[in-house]
Amino acid sequence: MLMLRKFFKSRPTSRFGLTYQRDLNVAIIGQSTFAAEVYKLLLKNGHRVVGVFTILDKGNRQDPLAAVASENNTPVFKIKSWRKGENALPEIVAQYKQVDAELNVLPFCSQFIPMEVIEHPKHKSICYHPSILPKHRGVSAINWTLMNGDKEAGFSIFWADDGLDTGPILSQKSCPVLPDDTVDSLYNRFLYPEGIKSMAEAVDMVANGTAPVIPQSTEGSSFEPSVRKKALQKVDWSRSGVDIQNFIRGLDSSPGAWTIINETEVKLYKSSIWTNETPTGEQVTVDTIQFPAIVHSNGLLITCNDGLKINIERLSVDGKMMAASNYGNADTVQETIDYTDQEKAYIPVVESIWKNILNMEIGKDTHFFQSGAGSMDVVRLIEEIKDKLKFTLKNDDVYMSPVFSDFCNTLVKRSRGSTDDNTRVEYDPVVVDVNNMKLQFAKQLFINGQFVDSESGKTLECINPADESVICSIQCASEADVDQAVIAASRAFEGEWSEMSPRDRGAVLYKIADLLDKNREELATIESIDSGAVYTLALKTHIGMSIDVWKYFAGWADKIHGQTIPISHARPNRNLTFTKKEPFGVCGIITPWNYPLMMLSWKMAACLAAGNTVVMKPTEVSPLTALKFAELSVEAGFPAGVINILPGLGSEAGRAIAEHPDIRKVGFTGSTATGHAIMKASAESNLKKVSLELGGKSPLIILDDCDLDKSVRMSMGGVFFNKGENCIAAGRVFVESSIHDKFIDKVVEEVKKIKIGNPLERDTHHGPQNHKAHLEKLINYCKKAKNEGAELKIGGKRVDRPGYYFEPTVFTGVEDHMFIAQEEAFGPIMAVTKFSSSDLDAVIKRANSTDYGLSSGIFTKDISKALRFAEKIDAGTVFINTYNKTDVAAPFGGFKKSGFGKDLGEEALNEYLKTKCITVEY
């Protein structure tokens, strides 16, 4: 921050009438990485930096501006002070004048610069200030922006005068202040990158004679003192909770707000307003607060005197940083780790990085911050570790392990994939002994990285369809819970998730795939007891394909890009047009009960790979694997708020997602009727984008030249796979008359071999239907089919045993007008129609006569007929001599009342991306 005293009273106006040139001789006066980046950009833009004036070395460590200037052989002057008392030091001023600068650029300057220097160049001096002047003049402007609760932050570039940040404005830019912003996050997200560009743009405007001179208004002006005074850093607990939160984050990460905890002085870092249920933990006293604070697994929870709760994640006690969750624990000896030979090779690389940053020899006890490192050095350290060792660390890894030996241990643990306690989320578990294992899963809503009770307190019962027993009761989300989840998802999208590079986001997606794989037996068992899926099928498909989906889209995360487009030029100028693919923001996902985890994965993996955040409602009848997934997402490293999972009723939670004004995209799989309701709600709320995967009545045509045994096997899979609870199930089978009877005989013979029973038994083929209402629907479906004249060959009734078991069923003689020919069963019911091969187009026309168009199939050895069928059938998926062959790389979705939009494959990404077109004239 520039600090100037009154050295003169007026400014010659003639300077604004000088002749300007395209490049300038510039002197840079300042310090820090910020100034170093401005230096590099000015050189890139063609200007000449004739001298750099910076501060003295700190020990053996020179300022980054001095370091980068020395590398380019620019004269560097390290100034202890520019003046003595009120008088400029003549020898320093004379030294400055020798460089013959035409413009002084002060990107970041902590010294008082004499007006003899400010006024000497013919274009005078321009300064950077991190506030929207005239508000927050002074050295701690950005701190006071946060401490005062401003909704907008920004910076000004102004012409230096004899006041304190009072000169005319050259340019200003602003950004919104996010709920959890700190000084570091504002600098890193906006003030730093945009400020560097704007300083270079300002120099160009000076060179071109287009730099404005806008007098600062005195209206709204303020000046606050430096926060370096310790008295100004103490938390005043008599203020409101919101004011206290703003105060703490306004001093994070430097110099830090302090208070008294258990009669000890403690600094507070990484604060946020707490909206979840109050956790249990050890109570401590905080200064003058009437309520005890709670040390819990995710920090220190402080209840302010007005009732607002603030959570602190990091503390500094006696200069030692620690996780707030460890406060009060006895000091522990640093863990001893035996390094492998490969891990030992990391150490000299890390030592070299530390040495380059700190400019000193590194020992095992070297303290990163006590050696002079600052917050921007943390960013540099993490980036260099990523570039050279391909490991992604977090800022907290540096803050919590600032000693070299400890940092190396942390890095090695991260390289092994180990996690800390804060990567596991606490909850009151449901514990079930089943399938020779002890299952443990949550029963609450998952919002902002925590399991919490619903606002209403309502619950839902989860029923095991195999024996009709109650597994547990889970919390049922309300509209208010959806609101809270959207707030959390919005904060995550605007903050840490968007700040992560696409490659880092992809790494998190790979991690969740690995965790799903690691826990596949447990997940398959939960899926089995909750949805009735046969365990072996759940292992292979429900869980196996989920793992594949996350791996597939993890690979896409850093490969999403636009394109350049040739357009007509605006002569004599030229134009460049290009597109960007951008995420929507908060997306809603609503999934069905037939493949609970797989449907979550199909939609959520693409959504997150595209950079969005999610509010997801799993089906109320089979939500347990979604809640287990939520638990694993914390361990995988998803930031809080990126994933929110809310079991609840479609009529309340689902409707709230479709209608919410801050959700910009909804992905839904389910019934056509519900799809209509979602489209209507989405249109009437905010015209959010919608993708729908709805009902189906998929035709399967079997010609007499087929491989009959394969056709029987594949058609049975097409109908009975996953108990018929399969969106692309072959809802109607057309069999050529010449092989019809033989086909039916073989099918009936094979159906008799299907073992119906406990889905956890390894030799079971066919488990229970998902829930009671669906079982009753299938019974009524068969009754209607018989009443309309279809012939029942086998099955058609409930199995006489506890559980929602329904016999695999075969009907023949199905005619086009029948209910069974037009409407989806979504169960193990094969509807067979005989046809003549004399006219393939006629049977295709019959197959197309439903309102649905999800999938289709044909079995024939005649490739011409197969391709003719593929061309004319009105369905989103066509199988030839196979069925149910889906793959994570192949797009999946339907036509007509089966919906629109795609899951899986590259096309799925487009459902969660918007295209921005940008045109530049030059």
Automatic annotation (TrEMBL):
Catalytic activity: (6R)-10-formyltetrahydrofolate + NADP(+) + H2O = (6S)-5,6,7,8-tetrahydrofolate + CO2 + NADPH + H(+)
Carrier domain span: 341-415
Single GO cellular component term: cytoplasm
Top EC group: oxidoreductase
Signal peptide, first to last residue: none
InterPro entries in UniProt: 10_FTHF_DH (IPR011407), ACP-like_sf (IPR036736), Ald_DH/histidinol_DH (IPR016161), Ald_DH_C (IPR016163), Ald_DH_CS_CYS (IPR016160), Ald_DH_CS_GLU (IPR029510), Ald_DH_N (IPR016162), Aldehyde_DH_dom (IPR015590)
Binding site for (6R)-10-formyltetrahydrofolate: 111-113, 165
Positions bound to NADP(+): 670-671, 777, 824-826
GO MF annotation terms: formyltetrahydrofolate dehydrogenase activity; oxidoreductase activity, acting on the aldehyde or oxo group of donors, NAD or NADP as acceptor
Biological process annotations from GO: 10-formyltetrahydrofolate catabolic process; one-carbon metabolic process
Site annotation Essential for catalytic activity: residues: 165
Keyword Signal applies: no
Keyword list, A-Z: NADP, One-carbon metabolism, Oxidoreductase, Phosphopantetheine, Phosphoprotein
Highest taxon, organism lineage: Eukaryota
EC number: 1.5.1.6
Residues at the catalytic site: 129 (proton donor), 693, 693 (proton acceptor), 727 (proton donor)
Protein family according to the UniProt entry: In the N-terminal section; belongs to the GART family. In the C-terminal section; belongs to the aldehyde dehydrogenase family. ALDH1L subfamily.
Protein name: 10-formyltetrahydrofolate dehydrogenase
Origin organism lineage: Eukaryota, Metazoa, Ecdysozoa, Arthropoda, Hexapoda
